[in-house]
Specification:
Two copies of one chain form a homodimer.
Chain A lengths: L26 H16 L6 H8 L13 H26 L4 H18 L1 H9 L6 H25 L5 H15 L11 H17 L1
The structure holds a DNA duplex.
DNA sequence: TGATGAACTTAACGACCGTTCAGCACTTGC
DNA sequence: GCAAGTGCTGAACGGTCGTTAAGTTCATCA
């Protein structure tokens, strides 16, 4: 009653030229995406290397040809997320540098889109960061802090009655709101969900 | 580098009459609270029975005198939370049955207070529910669903342009906002944090 | 053709985990 | 003073996990 082996091993030869212009993702990225999905639904410690391998159509030890170990897989999944969030946030702010209200709206737009596009990786980021060893964990926390500060700066300009600590509370509250998307599936289509989350977040932050 | 044993075993004899009117908590509850804290910070699978025992001042196997097993500890921690949330929500709604706006405000008040008072158990509830076996997990999900429906009903009365699915998206978004409190510590005192979260949640929900 | 190297397999290791069991210490009620 | 019972210890079990190692297959290319 452990893991129903539902993943079928792919044809094993897609190595050469892809059937069309579609760029072949590297095997490493492919495995990483599978691992992220498993981590997100069963928890880091709830998934074994054999589980990940089985889901990718290989045995557990085969994974060591692509990653140094299990912790390295988690780090490889989490670090790019923090980097993309920070880079995206900085870009949106730079694009509307003179108008803090527009900057906030752009931040919300960006974050909602990101969360809706990457629910598994967002859930991982929220729940499993502490399973990393010190070094990559510190790196990610630093990136997170910089991202939060972008929001805090925008908020303190826009709402002068807030001090930095209070703006930080609101920023985290906004993340909680926007990151709630992994918890709910269909029923409402993606565009409408994005609209609801955008409007709710902006209302929550503009007091 | 695993677990610094900082918990000191208590005097072991507080069994008789407490020194004053303070009601002695049962050993079971005491252990449960310790376990919840560990689960919340290191994850269910990241904590061993020996870890929990050590933090409570006993060995691992001693825990089997109070709980049937590790999963039973998690269930014992999570089920009362769902029950309290549902009961509290129903009570607040019944108390303001004629005024949906007041009902929503009461729900927000209640949930924010609960989240601020029990951050560890809220985090557990969010992250580790899937580690339970089917039976208790279904029970908890049923309680959760009923609690969410209280919010959904209040929201659909208050905002007639929303269908049930959209109201559910907003309800989960509000939970995400209010449950963000475990992620941030001091810097802003508790009363102010409650005020910020209350105002933000009401703004987010009232469109 | 034959060497190269990537991707994978099977087998095995040491460590740790949840759980069980037999027995000991100590308090309580008779 | 004695029996009952609670709470605990220490040792041990079967199982699982992350990881290592050695060997196999096979496409690629000189």
């Amino acid at each position: 009653m452990t893991l129903e082996q539902s993943a079928v091993r792919p044809p094993a030869q897609t190595r050469g030229a892809g059937p069309a212009g579609q760029r072949r993702r590297s095997r490493r990225e492919e495995i990483l995406e599978i691992a992220v999905g498993l981590f997100a639904t069963r928890g880091y410690h709830g998934v074994s290397m054999d589980d990940i391998g089985a889901a990718a159509g290989v045995t557990g030890p085969a994974l060591y040809h692509h990653f140094a170990g299990k912790e390295a897989m988690l780090a490889a999944a989490l670090i790019p997320v923090s980097e993309q969030l920070l880079a995206g946030g900085q870009k949106r702010i730079a694009e509307s540098s003179e108008d803090p209200a527009a900057a906030l709206a752009a931040l919300v737009d960006f974050h909602v889109e990101f969360a809706l596009a990457n629910p598994a990786v967002i859930a991982l980021h929220l729940h499993e960061l502490d399973r990393l060893p010190e070094e990559p964990r510190r790196q990610i926390r630093r990136l997170q802090r910089l991202y939060v500060e972008e929001w805090v700066n925008t908020l303190t300009v826009l709402r002068e009655e807030l001090n930095a600590g209070e703006a930080r509370v609101l920023a985290h509250a906004a993340f909680g709101l926007m990151n709630s998307t992994p918890f709910l599936g269909g029923e409402v289509d993606r565009a409408r969900r994005a609209e609801l989350l955008r409007a709710a977040t902006l209302s929550a932050l503009q007091g």
